[in-house]
Amino acid sequence: MHSFGYRANALLTFAVTALAFICAIASFSDKFSNQNPSAEIQILNINRFKKQSRGNDEVSLTLDIAADLQSLFTWNTKQIFAFVAAEYETPKNSLNQVSLWDAIIPAKENAKFRIQVSNKYRFIDQGHNLRGKEFNLTLHWHVMPKTGKMFADKIVMSGYSLPDAYR
Amino acid sequence: MGWIGETVDSIKSIQIRQLLTQAISLGMIVTSALIIWKALMCVTGSESPVVVVLSGSMEPGFKRGDILFLHMSKDPIRAGEIVVFNVDGRDIPIVHRVIKVHERENTGEVDVLTKGDNNYGDDRLLYAQGQLWLHRHHIMGRAVGFLPYVGWVTIIMTEKPIIKYILIGALGLLVITSKD
């Protein structure tokens, strides 16, 4: 009953249970944080807009992205993955989401930023529907915890449109 | 050396009835682990509810040896989600983030493109030759939860099998010699 093996087993079981419980509480505590992120995105320039030889439209553009995601950081946050996606509808597809830019935000100090970038990933449509197209730019964020549940949310900004002609 | 002597004595004194009890309790441990695994499969709807991260392609978010909990629901796949997918001709599933989604108007089928956060380019080089998009049937689940370091146990056991045998042997000996 009080052998070495029995005691070691009891100690290990208790340690693992306690650790799991602490992890669960840390993850649960994320729910009580106040979150009021804000974002603003402008299209500074359409650098290139053409139809590829394969028939798909491709756009290159420069964005001005300003965001404040500081309130998303809690003591259980390891990093935030933020990205901007263009979202639009075409006759063929009910939803198109194309990532244009993304970044890993490692700490709260970096979570308030303003940058001007051209798209990091190619903005290519499936087809040639982009002339005069109205689309949304959405800032998504994905909070990666030190332990526990991951969560994600977004801010949708609408009213952007592409030129009527290739250039 | 009292402990070892005791162990030897207890092995010597094993009765048939005691042996049966121990066999059954060992069986109970194995089957209950199986029950938990199968129940998790039912609840999450994913054929492997827990995966261990094996590569550094999602660093610094997920490091080698971290554990991910998967969930596979009917919800459509959206950009930004971290999905686990199988590629034809590869044995090991990959955990990467969705960066592009094109969803069909009438059928609801999706074309998905993924990328590892720590990789320079997208995953088209990892896909089967000539494959441009992932489809629904490639995707095993999306990551919903995260636990650091725990997966090292399985990584060590698969890479150094000798440790696995020592561990199983020690546990077996403990079960045989325990008196309760």
TrEMBL record, chain A:
Any GO CC annotation of this UniProt entry: signal peptidase complex
Keyword vocabulary terms for this entry: Endoplasmic reticulum, Membrane, Signal-anchor, Transmembrane, Transmembrane helix
Coiled coil: none
Membrane-topology annotation of the record: Single-pass type II membrane protein
InterPro entries linked: SPC3
Biological processes, Gene Ontology terms: protein targeting to ER; signal peptide processing
Main location: endoplasmic reticulum
Subcellular location: Endoplasmic reticulum membrane
Superkingdom assignment: Eukaryota
One Pfam family linked to the record: SPC22
Function in brief: Essential component of the signal peptidase complex (SPC) which catalyzes the cleavage of N-terminal signal sequences from nascent proteins as they are translocated into the lumen of the endoplasmic reticulum. Essential for the SPC catalytic activity, possibly by stabilizing and positioning the active center of the complex close to the lumenal surface.
Family that this chain belongs to: Belongs to the SPCS3 family.
Protein name: Signal peptidase complex subunit 3
Species for this entry: Thlaspi arvense
From TrEMBL, chain B:
Claim: Membrane is one of the keywords in the record: yes
Chief localization: endoplasmic reticulum
Membrane-spanning intervals of the chain: 20-40, 139-156, 162-178
Catalysis: reaction(s): Cleavage of hydrophobic, N-terminal signal or leader sequences from secreted and periplasmic proteins
Name of the protein this chain belongs to: Signal peptidase complex catalytic subunit SEC11
GO-annotated molecular function: serine-type endopeptidase activity; signal peptidase activity
Superkingdom to which the source organism belongs: Eukaryota
Domain Peptidase S24/S26A/S26B/S26C, residue spans: 36-106
Any single biological process term in GO: signal peptide processing
Protein's UniProt keywords contain Membrane: yes
Keyword annotations from UniProtKB, A to Z: Hydrolase, Membrane, Protease, Signal-anchor, Transmembrane, Transmembrane helix
Membrane topology value: Single-pass type II membrane protein
InterPro entries noted in UniProt: LexA/Signal_pep-like_sf, Peptidase_S24_S26A/B/C, Peptidase_S26, Peptidase_S26B
Compartments, record wording: Endoplasmic reticulum membrane
Family to which the UniProt record says this protein belongs: Belongs to the peptidase S26B family.
UniProt-listed PANTHER family: SIGNAL PEPTIDASE COMPLEX CATALYTIC SUBUNIT SEC11
